[in-house]
Design brief:
The complex is a heterodimer. By secondary structure, chain A is an all-beta fold. Chain A has no helices and 9 strands. Chain A has a 5-stranded mixed β-sheet, with no helix packed on it. A 4-stranded antiparallel β-sheet of chain A has the order 2-7-6-5, with no helix packed on it. Chain A is globular, with a radius of gyration of 13 Å. By secondary structure, chain B is mainly β. In chain B, the strands form 2 sheets. In chain B, strands 2, 4, 5, 6, 9, 10 and 11 form a 7-stranded mixed β-sheet that branches. A 4-stranded antiparallel β-sheet of chain B has the order 1-3-8-7, with no helix packed on it. Chain B is globular and about 35 Å long. The chains are: A mainly beta, B mainly beta.
Chain lengths: 111, 110
């Protein structure tokens, strides 16, 4: 499974766009990029998944450059409730695939 | 929308006791996964089941076993509990690629 590297922590302010970047230099051709959000003592929550270019849903956008060696999760307007740990995961699609969680990014949104 | 259900939500056991954690996947999901998250750590994959058959195995101790039943619910059985087994145990389910996690069971071993 491709290894990912994310910043350990980052701060942002309420109302500002939040961008969290993940590096995955040895991503394989059939790997997808998935982001999860986790609040303390809660299960990880799926945010967004993509393969290339840009993916947008009601919660976030995911930007993936052409070489796919990195990806950026973007939260358009950070709110205090976005304070959580964010995990970037890379792996092939298909059912019954285990998720390998690396060290996530602790995002703190400040008032 | 229905979510993954886990029971119990909290469990306290003594060393060397046994524990059984239950997971009820989202309806029509055919795959169940178990993860362990120790204090201050990232979730670690334990084991998964697809259509009631074990499909993948991670860092699950031999003292632990699991199975998926005909109604697709799964149980994680933990024996000879150790202090280090204290953790949050998450179950996730999927139909295709995306795994949806339950609220977790917090196991405390005293």
């Amino acid at each position: 499974l491709a290894k990912t590297t994310q910043p350990i922590s980052m701060d942002s302010y309420e109302g500002q766009e939040v961008n969290i970047t993940c590096s995955h230099n040895n991503i394989a051709t059939n790997d997808y990029i998935t982001w999860y959000q986790q609040f303390p003592s809660q299960g990880p929550r799926f945010i967004i998944q993509g393969y290339k270019t840009k993916v947008t849903n009601e919660v976030a956008s995911l930007f993936i450059p052409a070489d796919r060696k990195s990806s950026t999760l973007s939260l358009p307007r950070g709110s205090l409730s976005d304070t959580a740990v964010y995990y970037c995961l890379v792996g092939a699609s298909g059912s019954a695939r285990q998720l390998t969680f690396g060290s996530g990014t602790q995002l703190t949104v400040l008032p | 929308a229905a979510g993954v259900i886990q029971s119990p939500r909290h469990l306290i056991k003594e060393k060397r006791e046994t524990a059984t954690l239950k997971c009820y996947p989202i309806p029509r999901h055919d795959t169940v996964y178990w993860y362990q998250q120790g204090p201050g750590q990232d979730p670690q994959f334990l084991i998964s089941f697809y259509e009631k058959m074990q499909s993948d195995k991670g860092s699950i101790p031999d003292r632990f076993s699991a199975q998926q039943f005909s109604d697709y619910h799964s149980e994680l059985n933990m024996s000879s509990l150790e202090l280090g087994d204290s953790a949050l145990y998450f179950c996730a389910s999927s139909l295709a690629d995306t795994q949806y996690f339950g609220p977790g069971t917090r196991l405390t071993v005293l």
